[in-house]
Amino acid sequence: MKIHWFQHVPFEGLGAIEGWLLARGHTLICTRFYAGESAPATVDGFDWLVVMGGPMNIYQYRDHPWLRAEKRVIRDAVAAGKRVLGVCLGAQLIADALGGKVHQNAEREIGWFPITAVPEGRGSPFEFPAERTVFHWHGDTFSLPPGAVWLARSEACEHQAFAVGARVLGLQFHLEMTPDDVVRIARECADELVASRYVQPAGEIIAVAPAQAAGTAALLDRVMGVLARG
C-alpha cells in the first residue's frame, strides 16, 4: 500500500511504525508541515494516512495555518474509506475532524503509565488487553467523535484510544517510540517536565524506555495488523 504520513515537528517521526510498514513492502510518503510542505490536495494518492504527534494545540491556526488543510485531508480520507491512524496530536486531530472536541486535560500525563481496556471496546477488532504500560506525552484530551468506539482509559485521562470501524484508530499514547525517540522528546520538550502526579522525571522515563518499549511492540504489531487488514 501507499502510506502517506504527516509530521509536525522533526523530533517526532514514525518510530517503530516505519520499520513495520517497510518490512511488509509498503511505500512511504511524508508531508513535513514544520518544513513548509503542503497537505495533498486529494486523498487519491494513498491508501493509508498516518498522523503523528507534536507539541502544538490543534486549534493554533494563527501559528500553524496548515492545520485546516490537514483536518480536511483527515476528513476526506475517512470518508473515502482509507485507513487512518492518529498518534497523540494525530488522535486529537482525527477526533476533531470527525466531530469530537479537544480540550485541556485535567492532568498533564508524561511518562510510562498503564492504560486499561474499557467494556465499550469489547468485540472491537482493536480490543485492547486488560492493562498495558505505554508511553504518554500530552496535556490535552478529546471527546469521542460520533460513531467512535471507546477502547481504553488511564488513571489520568479517560479517553486514551478510540476506533471507527476497523480502518480508523486514534491513540492518545505512543506505541511507536523507540528508546532513542524517548530520549529525543525528553530533550526537546524538557520544559514540560514539571513535577506532578502524572509527570515522571526525565531520568526515570529514559532509564526504563528499553524494557517498556519492548513490552509495547506486540501491541503495536497487533493494531497495525488490524489496520492493514482493514
Observed structural traits:
230 residues; alpha/beta; Rossmann fold; nine-stranded mixed beta sheet; 6 helices; 30% helix
CATH architecture: 3-Layer(aba) Sandwich
Query: Can you identify the CATH superfamily?
Result: Class I glutamine amidotransferase (GATase) domain
Give the DSSP E fraction (strand runs of 2 or more residues).
Answer: 25-35%
Output the CATH class name: Alpha Beta
How many separate structural domains?
A: 1
Query: How are the strands of the largest sheet arranged?
Result: 2-1-3-4-9-8-7-5-6
Mean pLDDT over the full residue set: 97
Compute the CA-based radius of gyration: 16 Å
Description:
With 230 residues, this protein is of the alpha/beta class. The chain has a single domain, classed as Class I glutamine amidotransferase (GATase) domain (Rossmann fold), CATH 3.40.50.880. It has six helices and nine strands; from the N terminus they run E-H-E-E-H-E-H-E-E-E-E-E-H-H-H. Strands 2-1-3-4-9-8-7-5-6 form a nine-stranded mixed beta sheet, sandwiched between helices. Strand 3, helix 2 and strand 4 form a beta-alpha-beta unit. Helix 2 crosses helix 3. The two termini are 12 Å apart. The relative contact order is 0.16.
Structure in a nutshell:
The protein is of the alpha/beta class. It contains six helices and nine strands; from the N terminus they run βαββαβαβββββααα.
